[in-house]
Write a structure and sequence with these properties.
The chain is mostly helical and about 100 residues long. It has helices spanning about 5-30, 70-80, 80-90. Belongs to the YdjC deacetylase family.
Length: about 100
Amino acid sequence: MGQNMSFSRLQRALKQALAARTSETISRRASGLHQPVITAEFMVHPGYPSHPEDGGCGEGPDDFSQSTEREHELNVLRNPSVLQLYCQEGVQLCSFRDL
């Protein structure tokens, strides 16, 4: 989250999540079952910092919504290396609404 987010950390987390799929796939292939679907959520709030007088839930925007860390998250997630990683690993992105 925020400035702690980096391509290498994102890559490591994704590979750990997909490792479970790989070990299950080997045993499922032997029995003729389909490859399991792994659902994972990146808990991020990418975007641009809010202005102090705009947004929020009745009391104005909180500190994180005004933080430049949101833009950092956006830049990491839009990095071509991250998009390439998704393609290599067969990751399909969706919104919460799509679920």
